[in-house]
Amino acid sequence: MGVHGLLGAICEGENVTTYLRSEGTRLMEFAIHSIKNVTLNMCANACSTNTEGHECSSFEYDARSQECSIHAEDGQPFGASVLTKTSGPVAFFQQVCVRGDALCSTPYGFERYPQSLLIGHAMKVVLTEGLSECLSRCLAAPTSLHTQCRSAMFFYETGECIINRERRSDWPELFIDGVQDQLVDYFENNCQDVHCFNGQLHWIRTEEYFINHDKDVTIESMSLEECKAVCEENLVGTEKFPCRAFVYNAAKKECHLTADAGYTGRRGSSFNLKPISSGEYFEKYCLQVPIACLEASYEQVPDRTMTSKPYKEFSSTSVHNCLAICLQDGVQCAAAVFNYEKDRCSLSETSQFSHPELFVKAENMDYFDKICDPVVLAKHRTESSAERDAVADGVASLSLEPNEQHNVDDRVTSLSLADVEEVSKAVESVTSSSPSHDFKSNVVERKEALTEGTVIDDTADFLKEQKSPVKARLTTECLTSGVTVKVEFASKTSGAIYIKEKFATCHTEFTNATQVELHIPFPRSDEPDPRCPGIEIVGFSISAYADFTYM
Question: Which terminus of the chain has fewer Cβ atoms in its 10 Å neighbourhood, N or C?
Answer without folding.
Answer: N
